[in-house]
Amino acid sequence: MTPDVVTFLYVVKACAGVGALEQGREVHDQFLRQGLESHAFSNSLVYMYAKCGSPQDAKCVFDRLGHRNVVSWGSLVAGSVENGDAHTAFELFEQMKESGTQPNRPIILSMLKACICAGSISQGRVAHNEVIKAGLDLEATVANALMDFYIKLSCLDDALKVFANLILKDVVSWDTIIAGLTDSGYISSALNHYEEMQSKGFEPNKYTYSCILKSFANERLIFKGMLVHDQVVRCGLESNVVVSNTLADMYGKCACIKEACKVFLNMTIRDAVSWSTIIARCVEHNYSVLALHYFEEMHQDPLYSKKAPNKSVYLCGLKACALAGDLVLGRMLHDVTIRVGFEADLTIGTTLVNIYGNHGSIEEAAFLLNSMQDPNEVTWGLMVVACVQHDLFSNAVVFLSKMLERGMVPEKACFIGILNGCSKSEAISYGRLLHSYLIECELDTDNEVKSALLNMYAKCGSSRDSFGILECFSPGNDISLWDAKIAASAWSGDFVAASQFLHTMYTHGMKPDNVVFIGLLSACCNVGAVKEGYQFFSSMRGNFNIEPGMEEYNLMAELLAQAGLTEEAEAFLLSMPCPPDFVGWMSLLTCCKASDIGLARRIFHQVIQLDPIDASGYVLMANICADAHMWEDVIEINNHLHQFIY
């Protein structure tokens, strides 16, 4: 059977739809061989060639047309736009107007789409003028496209004018303006439009609900979100995957993880967005175990397992591993990312470096960093900070040097990390070099950097440098900066100044927090200032109505034990309102001598009760017994150690 013109029309439209240029050419040849003629078919050919990326063929067919009408021009313009060639579409639009052909609705819609692709506000305004000339500005379809154009090019006021002038609005009109207001951060206005929409008798659809729920999530308006959730259930849209994803995201962002999980578990169909949303929200609010549970469950979902891997889901899974401290699963996910081809992705690679670095697997983190194609400042900075955290200061210096050699300017977190490393290692010379570099880069004026510099000089014992920074240091109303100023004074041995700063802070209406006293007591431990330590500890409750925490009790006990007052330290720990922890008892055991063997036994018993498989307690007790020449006890302790560890 020989195909007719209608058949050819359908086939060439199908070729345009799937971008089948060669098949389209074959259809064109067959049409010509059959000697058929059709203006409609020629217009379809123009569109097919332009859309499939062959503008020369499209122009050739167009030029051969005996009569070029608005449909012919529309086919050429639309095809160029669909192929992503906005500038050609602009030229054709001008040629069309010069030829005397007035644009119709489809051409205007194509032009607005081209303006969005090219980011051209001026061309969009030209199209808008043509809309007004043609009297199309009162048509909802055209007005909606105009609003979409203005919103996407950040001209919200223009979009609102178009919306206000549109007499016969439809649901899409309301959806478009609500989405634009939400994305632009005008949440209250979006909510007003949502309420007005319903008051005028329009029923919200799945897109309306998705937009408005997104605005509730951004503003943490949980109660309004719950009311809309009820509406969603009543109109039967809870089963829609897009709406359910937005609901889960809204509850998650509002820290209602239980409600987010309920929505997720009630979903009959879950896509990659569903999984990445619930995992990301769990990670955001530190529900790392739950996040990993969902990540593992995701791979057992038969619907998800058939789909191509989604990078955002794996990224959420890796972040959950980092948060949960699960290095084993992190390694497993690393292997999976290699198999699915995500390892080369910068964000994935950076997250993996963070996981390995946080767990002290510095060699693995370094190997991964060196294998990355183009690691950025964040990746290198994480490597530097990881080395500092695990007392590998020299390694941190090497990585920072390599980073600077590559012309990168480290982020603030990296500088703060390396300055903290200088504090721990008492590397004041390197700290001064960093200070000079920070001044050169004009980064020394940042308050957090100032705090880190102050901390570094104070802990390295350079009173002159720390006082130099203190003189030009104005913490204002920032409690963290007052913390740094008070701690630096204490670490420099000036407890009088520290007390004065503490009371000045309080009289300025800022109540000190536990962090301030942890810094003060740490400084007292550093120099053995028992009297000052007692005064600061007592003032927590007495002067500032602050309840000391576990860390403050542990520091006070350590201060007493270091001063040889081990029994007083034991009594102090036992006076706590809650049972002492492993750290507190270990700090006492560290200070026990062979002459305190009875006390050491009592403390050792507390240590192994809390953590029977930690070797450090056994080693300390064995050394105390060895110093007391109690060799049988040494053997017995070593046997216990092997029993629990091996």
Please characterize this protein's 3D structure:
- 75% of the residues lie in helices and 0% in strands.
- It has 646 residues and is mainly alpha-helical.
- The model has no long low-confidence stretch (mean pLDDT 83).
Task: Name the features.
mainly alpha, Serine Threonine Protein Phosphatase 5, Tetratricopeptide repeat, 0% strand, TPR-like_helical_dom_sf, PPR_At4g14850-like_plant, RNA binding
Number of helices: 39
Class by SSE composition: mainly alpha
- Beta-strand content: under 5%
Number of strands: 0
Can you identify the CATH superfamily of one domain? Tetratricopeptide repeat domain
Question: Which CATH architecture of one domain is right?
Answer: Alpha Horseshoe
Unreliable residue stretches: none
CATH topology annotation of one domain: Serine Threonine Protein Phosphatase 5, Tetratricopeptide repeat
Fraction of residues in helix:
over 70%
Query: Taking Cα atoms only, what radius of gyration do you get, to the nearest Å?
Result: 35 Å
Q: CATH top level of one domain?
A: Mainly Alpha
Distance between the termini: 84 Å
Sketch the major β-sheet.
none
Mean pLDDT: 83
Shape: elongated
